[in-house]
Specification:
two-stranded antiparallel sheet; 11 helices; 26% helix; signal; SEST-like; SGNH_hydro_sf; GDSL-like lipase/acylhydrolase family protein
Amino acid sequence: MRFRPAALTALFSLIVPAALVGTALPVAAVPVATTPVATDGPGDGTPWIVTLGDSYISGEAGRWAGSSNDDYRRADALGRHAYHDNPSGTDEVIARCHRASSAEAHIGGGVDGLNLACSGATTATSTGRYFKPGIDFYDGSAGQGQALMLQEAAATRNVRMVVVSIGGNDFEFASVVQSCVVNFLTSPSWWKNYCHDDSSVAANFTAANVAAVRSRVAGALGNVATAMSDAGYSTDEWTLVVQTYPSPVPSGSGFRYSESGYTRQSTGGCGLWNRDADWANATALPTINGALLGAASDVGLPNVRTLDMTHAFDGKRLCENGVGLYEEVGLPGWQSPGAVDRTEWVNQIRTVTTIGNDPYYAQESLHPSYWGQLAMRNCLRQVWNGGEPRSGSCTVGNVGAARLTALGEPSMVLGPLDQG
């Protein structure tokens, strides 16, 4: 990753909130969607799935299938047009939303997908250097909120399922991760400075803030319901799926790099102390996901389902034992047999100094990469369940030894809903 310890202040903010039989073949870009016709609308026409929320559902980092510090081309599954979602596939509709063609919205099989999520989004729209539509009815010169976009899209499409993943950025998870990495890089292993007890980090997980975020998420879900109602839908004509976040890193004992020295960040791109990683999995992630699940209950709709992604990447997480960089596992690239099982499904944490002339974005850090995006798509297809949506928790199939389906996706298992 060509990390330079002296350049600690160059960390970019992260925009939050990885056994193959045969050869891994590229998945097509976004499946060709049916152009809505005049007669399509609530209950009529080709079924559609719409995804709303932030980077974990928009497709952030979906360009990269695993990681290599030697040559980025080994992991470049989608190329420079990965996030170009305009009709000609040449640019982004909204800059830096990073709606990858590998994003989960596009399950195919006679179901069209519309991805309205945006990397960096919170529950409420924000304007600034980059426009970030929240799940609201904002309508201004910079653009529209995701709820308003949904309402307009649903009026001329038969939207059967709306999937929402939001809340991570309301918890300031990007700055939490940045604090953890900086603390790792600026304190020695014999006098560790942990991030989980920093006042700036702890403030995001107080009871008062958790309740406030839960309320905002419930409001966002209520906006989705209002949008669908205003577009002419009754609750029995569509399903709201609330999707939780996956664990991106293992607990401390599961890292393949030592805490000593800079290797954990300079090679693996996962600069966290063991105790901070333990806290992330035991406290931070359950708190965030618990707020989402609480909001799903608070909104009081009869048509709500839950897709729990907490353990979807277990065994394939960033820097986890059992997987590695391409040069570590002895594979030439992402299309090599076994790549999906032997490489990570979560993108490395990058700093300005690690990007250099390579085509990475700092905001891709710690997000589901190509394999992770397709794994989530496989989970969502099972939630769709042929048009009878169901809840469940998703995990890697084949007892953790990932294999690809005929569609080029990791084979996943949707089991009983379990947030434990």
